[in-house]
Amino acid sequence: MIIGIDAGGTLIKIAYTENGQLQFKKSPIADIEGVAKWVNGLGDCEICLTGGKSGVLRSLLTKQAKEIVEFEATHRGVQFLLSKMGRSETTYLVTNVGTGTSIHCIQNDSQERLGGTGVGGGTLVGLSHLLTGVSDYEEIVRLASKGSRERIDLKVKHIYEGKEPPISGELTASNFGNDLFSISDELTKEELLATVIGLVGETVSTVSVQAARQCDSSLVIYIGSSFIHNPLLKEVVESYTILRGSTPLFLENGEFSGAVGAMTTL
Ligand code: ATP
Ligand code: MG
């Protein structure tokens, strides 16, 4: 058995082969001891670790394990999962919306980190909790998918009243920027959560499209667990990326890129 483990800030992602089949597994970082116990209880296996918490995991393992830098693992994993989807692109941007967001340019079989933003999946959960008291991720994304951003976000067309705006009036002029002091008590959890997801989605796609100019490619591959069960985030990111002239692609099992990449080094 060969196992790749990506221990990130929020979730531990595991990719392994069993009877020649690729399998995936994930656990919250709070259960890092449970993951170590699972690995320690396995028979003969080869292990490669990556991610910010790989050092903590390593200290809990009774088996030998290799280690690879997170960005390299992600790059390898994206290549692997992309070819599994039957795609053959070699130049593209990768935006990993994890706890935070990291952006990479892939060219000539190597990756360069172009930058990132602190607005990511951690922001989605943290801001959602502060605004609504909801703390369960699945509950946040379920409620958000039923909400409207109409009353909370300020669009360009709201500012350009009775006048043709120089850019699309449908663009967000200001996330949470609408005149909402007088209605703040009546806003629903669904509306607030949808607007948080709008803020995260528009920020990561805007930064990605700007970074794509440095990368000689208009293809932006989005990965990271923030897209799990989150059709609203996908929709915001997809439409904003297209609106800004790039092509979005959501990689199948993309949240396991780091784990898969680590596994492929074995
Ligand atoms: P980083 O790469 O920044 O160190 P990470 O690898 O842990 O972090 P991901 O696993 O890619 O990050 O994404 C974490 C985000 O995914 C969370 O912030 C949250 O928005 C979302 N998420 C998806 N499923 C869950 C879940 N079951 N529990 C908590 N967060 C989840
Ligand atoms: Mg990660």
From TrEMBL:
InterPro entries: ATPase_NBD, Type_II_PanK, Type_II_PanK_bac. GO terms for biological process: coenzyme A biosynthetic process. It comes from Planococcus massiliensis. It comes from the Bacteria. The keyword Isomerase does not apply. The keyword Cytoplasm applies. Signal peptide: none annotated. One of its GO terms (cellular component) is cytosol. This is Type II pantothenate kinase. Keywords: ATP-binding, Coenzyme A biosynthesis, Cytoplasm, Kinase, Nucleotide-binding, Transferase. GO terms for molecular function: ATP binding; pantothenate kinase activity. Gene3D superfamilies: 3.30.420.40.
